[in-house]
Design brief:
With about 475 residues, this protein is mainly alpha-helical. It is about 50% helix and about 5% strand.
Length: about 475
């Protein structure tokens, strides 16, 4: 490893010296595909520049990962959707045959770390803005820290050990090379260290981000909601901390909307159930939400077609309200292994085709079910099922009980399946609760036959490969087992 590091340093220093007469900047980083030059060491000049950079941070939610691929990862890889469409690279997600050269997965890595780098610009340099108030500066650091935490959280769940990126690099010279080397050529950090960084960033957000009154901003309550899920997901989950942060969110005055469909009809944005949501603001805005077209419409075969598993869960529970808000059907010009051309199903939560589609990063029902999961994991089955039944009552279906802890876990999983379908959660839920291989290996088609691809799922396939181009560019990176 040391010889690789020395080789990289020597090679790039030679390049820096060769190019220094032309430019102080050298784009060597395998972490980010974007470059921004600074002026005499000043990156953020004033308050206006800082606000522009902050808009760019929120604009990262218009990236391919957040508009499409986190839903392909969270739902398309799971049993609540057939990934659909006609992209061979994306078929590898669904069939658990991901290659390290997969172009879509490479794009996901680039998006996530570009998003983190955009946050780092604010975190590292906002102090340079001479006319920015201290209050606004602190808010920006809190907001950017939470969004950085969210992106690291997705990275560690997708790839396991992964780089921790906390430094934005603009220029490389022989003088600063040692200082920026780790940012240019990162190593994969152990999962535990990545979680430590995520927790640190969430705590900064709780201290410095705006309060929860603006659901469209990264806010304190959103940080608490993320922390609750982080403590549930990290190795050796801390269920006490999960409950603590769930309770702090539950004390925030949020309520379940009486009508489930109001969560998704675009007439109730920033509602009383919303904790933190991405605000699509139309074409030409930082977030022109284009994802609706990926899931809804009959002009071409769409991604994330609802699965028979999902439809059957709604049917078995008499869950007509949530089914109507989650799935719509139309007659189309295609058929596939799963559905005929008559009444072909589409994911329906993304409906606004004017670039204004919002989506949730945290909402109350998710937190209620997360606390239920924590209680069940600690043996409080009645307490867990009481929270599940709050969610079911809002959906207009009967309450249920569980005979023991194992039964409670499966029922919580099924409730999350119905409540949160097509919100990017299912794959991560199954992994967190240790049920991914067991459940996904038994996925069936409409005739009750196990899908051929289901046999591909195993423990190694619960993590994605490190993109091959990143390995080629950085000899300090290593590959995941099984790839």
């Amino acid at each position: 490893m040391k010889s690789v590091r020395n080789f990289l340093k020597t090679s790039v220093i030679v390049m820096v010296l060769f190019l220094s007469s032309c430019s102080d900047y050298l784009d060597t980083t395998p972490i980010t595909e974007d470059t921004i030059t600074d002026t005499n060491g000043i990156v953020i000049v004033d308050a206006a520049d800082a606000e522009s950079r902050m808009n760019a941070v929120y604009g990262t939610f218009a990236s391919g990962y957040w508009q499409l691929d986190f839903l392909l990862a969270g739902d398309g890889q799971s049993d609540n959707a057939y990934i659909g469409a006609d992209n061979p690279a994306i078929f590898q997600y669904e069939t658990y045959q991901m290659l390290s050269t997969n172009s879509q997965m490479k794009g996901d890595w680039n998006d996530i770390y570009n998003n983190i780098n955009t946050c780092n610009i604010i975190i590292n340099y906002v102090d340079q803005a001479s006319d920015l108030t201290t209050t606004r500066r602190d808010e920006m650091i809190g907001e950017a820290s939470l969004i950085r935490a969210l992106n690291h959280f997705h990275a560690v769940q997708l790839w396991g050990d992964c780089p921790i990126a906390t430094q934005a690099v603009f220029s490389v010279s022989s003088e600063n090379f040692d200082e920026v080397f780790d940012a240019l050529f990162p190593t994969r950090k152990p999962v535990a260290e990545v979680y430590d960084q995520i927790i640190e960033d969430c705590l900064i957000a709780i201290d410095m981000a705006p309060d929860g009154s603006n659901k469209f901003k990264a806010n304190k309550m959103g940080a608490k909601a993320l922390l609750a899920k982080v403590y549930a997901t990290m190795p050796n989950p801390d269920w006490i901390k999960t409950i603590q942060y769930c309770d702090e969110v539950l004390a925030g005055g949020y309520i379940l909307l009486p009508t489930y469909d109001h969560l998704f009809d675009s007439a109730h944005e920033g509602n009383d159930e919303s904790i933190w949501e991405v605000n699509g603001e139309g074409w030409g805005s930082p977030i022109g939400a284009w994802n609706t077209f990926m899931f809804l419409g009959t002009d071409w075969k769409k991604f994330n077609a609802p699965s028979h598993t999902l439809v059957q869960a709604f049917t078995a529970n008499g869950d007509t309200q949530r089914k109507a808000s989650t799935i719509t059907t139309a007659n189309v010009g295609w058929a596939d292994t799963y559905w005929s051309s008559t009444n072909y199903p589409f994911a329906y939560k993304m409906r606004d085709t004017n670039g204004n589609q919002n989506f949730y990063l945290a909402r109350l029902a998710d937190i209620l079910l997360l606390k239920a999961e924590a209680l069940a994991s600690l043996g409080d089955v009645p307490g867990a099922m009481a929270l599940v039944n709050q969610v079911r009552t809002r959906a207009g279906i009967s309450t249920i009980s569980a005979v023991d802890q194992s039964d409670a876990v499966y029922k919580i999983l099924e409730e999350r399946l119905m409540e949160l379908a097509f919100e990017g959660d299912r794959w991560f839920d199954l992994k967190r609760m240790g049920k991914a291989v067991e459940i996904l290996s038994q996925q069936k088609d409409g005739n009750g036959v196990v899908l051929p691809s289901a046999s591909n799922i195993n423990q190694n396939r619960l993590l994605w490969p490190i993109p091959q181009d990143k390995l080629d560019a950085n000899g300090l990176l290593t590959q995941n087992p099984g790839y």
